[in-house]
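Subject: TetR family transcriptional regulator

B.,
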Amino acid sequence: MARRFDHSSEEICTMALHWVRQYLEEDTAENLSLRKIAKGIGYSPGTLINLFGSYSYLLLRVNADTLDKMSVEMTAGLAEISDPQAQLEFMALSYLNYAMAHPQRWRLVFELRLASDEDIPDWQQQRIDALLTRLKAILSELNPDAADSALEQTARVIWAGVHGISFLAVEDKLFSPSHLNNSEMISALIRHYLTGWISNTLAQ
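Prediction pasted inline below.
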């Protein structure tokens, strides 16, 4: 067991988060525990609670890192894509690809439940808001006359659909015919939804 002064607080946090990320590449969050993390890095559970505030907040830090990595993959190539619809499809497919490549880390983002007395920290909410802001900006290019409330709703609806397909793909429960694939389904969802959304806006 490491002594408390072997590493700084920042180093212990980094060690814990790295250990959890590595663990989730091989096993599920359901089999994870604060005690396992503490044992894995050679510190006590109490030390981790003191540093992170709670087990949930420790996992939330892991989720923040996951969102950062997804954001990088989803936006890295956008500057090279001029068509807004193609940008949305690129982001959606990047999201799907991350979910398929790192299913346990991806699941934890949506399965983690905070205690009733624990609020989502600003640093996590800002990450979520940044994704929606990016989506709304792209949708605004496609439909400049849309109100902000319509952009907000459309961004959430599209991402709910993308998330649903991604979830079923990760769980292997799409039951789709062999001639269909997950990427084509996501692209079809975006194309058809956007066509209807833009048409309805113009008709109002």
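The CA atoms of residues 89 and 188 lie 9 Å apart.

T.
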